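Run folding on both entries below.
>entry_1
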Amino acid sequence: MSELNSRRVHLATVPNFRSLGGLPVAGGTVAPGMIFRSATLGSLSAADSATLVDLGIRRVADFRTAGERESAPDVLPDDVEGVVFDVLGDQPSSMAASLAHIGMPGDDSEMTPEAAAAAARGIADALGEGRGIALLQDSYRQFVETDSARTAYHGFFAALTEEGEYRPTLFHCSAGKDRTGWAAAVFLLLLGADEATVLEDYLLTNVDIMPMVEPMLAKAEANGLDPEMLLPVLTVQPEMLGAALAAMRAEYGTVEEYFVRGLGLEEDRLRVLRDRFIAA
């Protein structure tokens, strides 16, 4: 785990931020300083903005829905391009796009205690006894199966393999765990990382996301919800990623076939991806 931890960059206003550089893949490691993942940049401070620039990041890929972007627009440094790849445009009410509101049934000043308690019971009924994880597994399958997801991930990987000078890229969604987690997993698998490496990076989110999750859990508890019930859906679980991997393999067989047939990208781009991002 120490090798993975060394990839972290602490940003006070951007949780769950880390580089993919240095992870072991076929023939070497992911090249450093080339690609990063995080949660939303909606509250990016001036100091953290300067850090992004210092890291060499010149493009930010946003996987969020229109509603998410409108409620918390990215704050980007000058000379950093923002591009949108809306993964859940076909399913804007998908669980993966709704997590920011979990545990917060409303503005306490506008809700009676009875109404807040009823809202809390509704959330518990929806998410308790493993139902929340099952809903997120459905979201992960949507990452593979829906038109908006295929279009979004096509655009993302096309940007990573574009001709000309590559611009180091940060990609994110709201929490940086689900849509972002799938993008990172596919990226690493395409470079030949083994599944243990992919899963270890994926699960590192459960540590790095806590500055975002802890206030949500406190709010949930104040509203009468059991934080232990919410924690599994506000973090990541192996069976969530497993649902997307199973859907991909059922339809396409391999990650390479998903890249070519599912995302509609030329095989030559796979060579470009590996040449560009693998350091011997």
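>entry_2
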Amino acid sequence: MSREPNHRLAAVMAEAGASNKGLAKRAREVAERHGEHLGTTHVAVQRWLDGSGIQRQTAVYVAEALSHKLRRRVTPRDLGFPDASPAPAPAVGMGYSGSLAETLHTLESLTHQRPEDGPLDEPQLANTEVHSAALTWLVSRPDGVPIDGSDTRRVSMREVAAIRTAAGFFMQLDFQFGGGHAHKAFRHYFREDVLPLLGANYSAKVGVALFKAAAEMSQLLAWTAYDSGNHALSDRYMLATLRLTQVVGDRTMGARVLANMSHQANYLGQAGRALMLARASVEGGKTSATPRARALFSAHEARALSTAQDRKGAARAMNEAEKFFARADGADDPEWLAYMDEAELMGEFCHCFRDLGQRAGALRFARRAVELTDPKYARTLGLCRLVLAQSQLMSGDLEAAVATAALAVEAGDALQSARFQRYVGDFQREVSAGHGAHPVVRQFSGQVRAAMNRLDDE
């Protein structure tokens, strides 16, 4: 009985520009990365094209090889091997991907998810997944810029500059109005205008700049998902972004992603996870990060140590952050790091002292942070005002505390930030627990209710 030629495999190979020998070589390399030996040659590829069967795992390796070549996900079924299709894949974005193609597929899939639509009880990635991802990234080598894209478009520095300009614009929207305000626009722009360029053609120089800009935009999606309160979605974006930084060895951005993951874990009270991620960030940024970036990474380590109530460790990390920051002005920082100024550092430190219960330090640094913060960083200013209010409350100054918190609510009641709203709620509960009947507290509670109603009406 004669076999039918495998037209699907032939079509995908033609799209990828892959010869029999080239595909066999790529499949062997994929298998080797998975710790397996594959003896596939061009002769086997021709047999498949002629309609012969294939081993299930071999088909998986061939599909991964073509996925990497085309920079989109290809399955064994797409190649005419329906009986060799792998078991159903886990949820999108689970774990640290081994290939760029899978990473890009994950990112594209995530951009179809809205933070507000996710279930509130959706689990975050397990600690084992996060630890494994951090370790894998720490010991990774750059993949190198792919130079054989199937898309005929040619990318120049002009397109890269456009992405960076957009990233700066979106970042300012996040600071000023909160992560929930513009996440939809972030997602659409990233999916329609950024991801497709990664599969186009470009020089090595442009490719490096393009992947760095794409990672910058991707981490904004991760951050805004976190600020919107969808921590499971944020986790998946962050791990995919971390993997994206591996392509061109962007250690500074990768360390920033780990620091952001530490920030999120700390916010959720996961001190052990926060500390591991912060230290991975510090270690990962040692060789290439500027002093300003290293100050940021050390400040996040201090935050995690403060949550863990390690006073000595927190003091050491804050001291290191100060030393790095003192050398910051002479370095050529990436544009996205411009927000890391003295006000930001003071803001990190006031959180540390608050969490350690050291009211004098919390008051001093919170006041300084509020004084220095540019109003364009509306969310940061609001958070620091609320830490100042908590510090004033710890010091027994009820009226000053309520006045400070009231100012934060008045100035930031339109912020679509789950973090800001939680800070407001935390202060309201703290002040009501001991002073609920006081007139200024009752007035403040009414102000909070009115602000939340306005936010619901938007």
